[in-house]
Amino acid sequence: MRTVAGATDHVVVVGAGLSGLACALHLLGAGRRVTLVERDAGPGGRSGRVRLGGYEVDTGPTVLTMPHLADEAFAAVGDSLARHVRLTALHPAYRASFADGTSLDVHTDGEAMEAEVRRFAGPAEAAGYRRLREWLERLYRAQMDRFIDANFDSPFQLLHPDLARLAALGGFGRLDRRIGRFLSDPRLQRVFSFQALYAGVAPARALAAYAVIAYMDTVAGVWFPEGGMHALPRGMADAAAGAGADLRWSSEVTGLERSAGRVRAVRLASGERIACDAVVLTCELSTAHRLLGRAPRRPVRLRHAPSAVVLHAGTDRTWPGLAHHTLSFGTAWERTFEELTRTGRLMSDPSLLITRPTTHDPALAPPGEHLHYVLAPCPNTDVGPSAAAWRDLGPRYRDSLVAELERRGLDGFADSVREEMLVTPLDWAAQGHAAGSPFSVSHTFAQTGPFRPRNMVRGLENVVLAGCGTTPGVGVPTVLVSGKLAAARVTGGGSARPVRPVHSVHARPAPPRAARAAVLPAEKGSHDPS
Predict the structure, then answer these.
(1) Nearest to 364 by CA among 58, 43, 94, 95
(2) Are 380 and 398 in a shared domain?
(3) Is the pLDDT of residue 493 over 90?
(4) Residue 507 belongs to a domain
(5) Is residue 100 one of the residues assigned to a domain?
């Protein structure tokens, strides 16, 4: 594995999102001195927090899977996730609602889910689910160590027995066809293939290997942190500070001072110069390339994932048909993905993710009220409406989205709203996200594994990248891995201090929550693409 050459005693990590925080913790655990520089007023990056009247709103991801990857970062400094964040396992992980009026609770417990599938679609589909679950588990084992939790220096690193195992499992076929081998009910097929959208690829064109995301969502478990998703980066920042990191908030990096093939210092907008031995950039790729003064040459231009419109709504009521996470599927399917990724049209029959965090933490809203997060995928600004077009389009689309929610059973939604915030590709673009997409570079075959933008920078021997634009990719679990992989590039994977074993995320309850911090304005943007 290629690593940073020369001294690495003092590392500046740019960006305090999940990848930057994970990187900082792993570096601290390996005995490095770390300065963490973040342009926002506090940690989080895409996993930010705003106060909206009396509501506390997570501005980024709402689904937490694979929490042991976060625990691994805490353990690097002799700490644990459980000391900082209290997690609740969600049962069900999701509720899937379909256009025909049926619904399915998605359980991560195998027996519970098999019984639910039997109730929903009969014994043959239940047996197919059991086979699918076993396949997902084998797929995860074949991929995790070799293709996800791994630094690549060359595509030749793929030549390993695990590649043959992945091929034997059908990982290089198409996702929708592979799922169809186990399940014939099209509703169930959607439940186990919609995750391809996270990777920015339609199920009909996605590699079956991407079903590993369905493993994380439907087998490994879905969790909710008390205090909302922002509790995770806040806890990581506290652990980093306790381990000796120098945390610099409201500090924007404007330049890198270079000589003899190395970055010698980071310059801030304030004029301050921070000398360093190595730098980890966790910013959007386009921002990293601007700071570096160039972008790597690629035979084909990078393609970005679809974007999303998010409506954050504080309401005076809720609806009993909603679970913590509800997937509301429209009738259309293939056409929806064609619109999102090719024709650039807004979804004519949208599928939506509705999250109600007050299901498990009522303190996120005023007494007796609720918080709803409605995510509607939409084309990015490369293939769909421009960022500027969303100035006029946004309010109209908000109204059509609310009307669609009411048609799907959320009667009175419009009148229930007390506070709201609409986020569109215009806002994502203003935060510096390329193509107006918070999901970064899509996971086409040519942008996956060793073909994804790498985390080492040619021509500069002490600069490393982290975040969802580089390896291994998009999503909370993968950006946590990305931070660890970046740290390994700096340290060579070694540790300068004893590291205690990782404790279970259930090891002990978190301490009582402190008063919540002031606004962490993620809508202004952040360096971290997690």
Answers:
(1) 58
(2) yes
(3) no
(4) yes
(5) no
Residue 278 CA to residue 49 CA, distance in Å, equals 30
- Tell which phi-psi region holds residue 8, choosing left (phi > 0), alpha (psi between -120 and 50) or beta: alpha
Query: Domain with 277 in it: what CATH number?
Result: 3.50.50.60
Task: Check the CA dihedral 504-507-511-512 and report its sign.
Answer: positive
Average pLDDT over residues 432-453: 85
DSSP string, 353-415: EEE-GGGT-GGGSSTT-EEEEEEEEE--TTTSS-TTTHHHHHHHHHHHHHHHHHHTT-TTHHH
Across the range 369-374, mean pLDDT stands at: 98
Beta bridge partners of 314: 371, 419
Decide: residue 238, CB within 10 A, 0-12 exposed, 13-18 middle, 19+ buried. middle
In the 8-state DSSP scheme, what is residue 502? Answer: P
Same domain, 323 and 295: no
Q: How far is CA 70 from the centre of its chain?
A: 13
Beta bridge partners of 288: none
pLDDT over 70, % of the chain: 92
CB 465 within 8 A of CB 289: no
Mean pLDDT calculated for residue range 279-296: 90
Higher pLDDT, 424 or 454: 424
Nearest Cα to Cα of residue 424 among 398, 450, 444:
398
Residue 247, SS3 per DSSP? strand
Parallel, antiparallel or unpaired: strands 325-328 and 352-355? antiparallel
- At position 179, the amino acid (one-letter code) is I
Exposure of 339 in the CB half-sphere (CA atoms within 13 A): 16
Q: Is 132 helix (H, G, I), strand (E, B) or coil?
A: helix
CA 498, CA 489: separation in Å to the nearest integer? 19
How many structural domains is the chain composed of? 3
Helices and strands, counts by H and E, the chain: 16, 20
Per the structure, the complete domain to which residue 145 belongs is given by: 109-217
Please identify, among 383, 417, 434, the residue that sits at the C-terminal boundary of a domain. Answer: 434
pTM equals: 0.90
334 and 404, same domain (yes or no): yes
Which of 217, 235, 251 is the last residue before a domain boundary? 217
Q: What is the pLDDT of residues 86-124, one digit of tens each?
A: 999 999 999 999 999 999 999 999 999 999 999 999 999
Q: Report how far apart the first and last C-alpha atoms of the chain are (Å, whole number).
A: 24
* SS3 state of residue 278: strand
Q: What is the DSSP pairing of strand 370-378 with strand 307-315?
A: antiparallel
Q: Please, what is the average pLDDT of the chain?
A: 89
> Is the domain of 76 the same as that of 178?
no
Whether residue 383 lies inside any domain: the answer is yes
Which amino acid appears at position 150 of this protein?
A: A
The fraction of the chain above a pLDDT of 90, given in percent, is: 74
Same domain, 348 and 369: yes
Six-digit token string for 78: 């002799």
Report yes or no on 4 lying in a domain: no
